[in-house]
Amino acid sequence: MDNPIKSEQNLLTKPCRIFASLNFFLMSAIFILIFGNLVGINLPKYYPLLYRWSIPPLEGPAMGYFSALGFALALALPLSLIFYLSAPYLQKYLEIRFKTFKNLSTVFIVIGIFYFIAKEWKEWGIEKMGLNDSRFFNAEMVFFIIILGLFLIFSALLLILEKKIFE
Amino acid sequence: MTPPLFLENYATILKGLHGGLGIVSLFALAFGVYLIIRRAKIDWSSGLKASLVGIWAYVLTFVLGLLIYPVFRIKVRAEYFDIKLPWLTGLFEIKEYVAAIGFFIALVLLGFYYFFRIGESEKPIKQSFINLLFVLFLITLFSACVGFLLSFYKTI
User: Cα dist. B58→A20, A71, A74 in Å?
Assistant: First the structure.
């Protein structure tokens, strides 16, 4: 046969459906965490000194982390369940395959990690330390190059590991 | 006198548990990844057992971290790091979000354990499992390094 078709390509097996849903959960949770952070969704924050949760800003240090985490989980879980239930119908229009979901979830993880490294370090490690200036090779540019290097090393490590086990 | 913060009276014990379980998680995940890589063609069971211990230890470490966070936020971050060492706050912020991604990964890995017989599963499932396990190990290693560094400067 010229074009062999993998069995998973046309037939959505139960393991593939579960596997895709687990990966969908991972991707959607990371996406919601990043999106919420990027857009700045107004979620309730905990004010430890006041022992209160509040959406409008109050006096004193605030903690938005609990809400961000809860929000990501609370949305990703039902979305994944909907995905699991609708997967047989979606398969008619999309090609749900093991490999696609495996690769996509790895991409989401890598992007998620490096988004938070870049975002938080830019704020606390560069701006609040007063290191940003107008030169081209300023602290931000150097930091961007370091992040890019780390990104490439990290991706290469994953590929090497996968090859080493299954070669 | 101001009343204690949420779980402030237990913060030292909880922090000790958080650190201890974090170390257990780190070593169990490292051992699990090592065994799976070394014995991938022979037997996955010993690597999977070590990994399961590591994953559960990670989940517990993460939950304990959430419990001590309000005390850390006030006594360490707001009173010291934010003012004098903002780059350490930056490292902590990175650690908390990366750890959250690790928590999602840990939940998915537990799902793998629950739904599949990983050692006998199809290749993509095994590949995905080892990928996620390796990433979780890296996240745990990074979190442990940052945790030690933060404790070196100030602790709750």
Answer: 24, 21, 21
Here the ipTM equals 0.93
Task: Write the residue in A48, A101, A116 that is nearest to B94 by C-beta.
Answer: A116
The H helix count followed by the E strand count for chain B is 5, 0
Report, as ranges of residue numbers, the positions in chain B whose pLDDT lies below 50. Answer: none
DSSP B85: -
CB atoms B100 and A162 under 8 Å:
no
B132-153 pLDDT, tens digit per residue, is 999 999 999 999 999 999 999 9
Three-point CA angle A89, A91, A72, nearest 5°: 80
Query: What is the distance between the alpha carbons of residues B91 and A116, in angstroms, rounded to a whole number?
Result: 10
Give the closest-approach CA distance of B127 to chain A in angstroms.
Answer: 6
Give B111-126 pLDDT, tens digit per residue: 999 999 888 888 888 8
